[in-house]
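#structure-requests
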Amino acid sequence: MTSLLRGGAANVNRAARRRRTVAALGAVSAGLLVLSACDKPTPLATVTVGSKSVNTEASCYNDGKELKNSQLKSCLQDKDVKSIKVDPDEKVRFGVDPEIAEKGWTLLMNGQPLTESSKKTYVVIPGSVFFNQQYGGGGKQSTVSLLEGGKDSGSKATGLWSFKFEKDSDS
């Protein structure tokens, strides 16, 4: 038997329920606070050579708004970009999210336009191009960037994704 007065057990249950409700509301509030601090990820660009691929988020991106020329120049000089080995005899495949393709994108090699603007999500280019002096390449490595908008597309530049291509030493 309990020694609680009549109705006392109900008050204990009510207090426990109130604590659980407050704890649940606190957890939900904390979760929403954490989610609101998260940035929306930028669209991805992917490079595939043979069976190896690497993808990255944008080096420069402002939620699809126009980037200033000074921002683009700074991003083109970024040294902290993902790299992939490229055999000049292999084909290099570029894939972009549909969001990038809608605005049009241009391939840049060492900061200079390599292709005309494309609205495709997938483009294939021979690996030899990236080490050919005729196209602005040469040596053992090149920096290849995808520019969303800008250059040939007639619209403003809104994003830049960069990769470092290293000539495969086995070739």
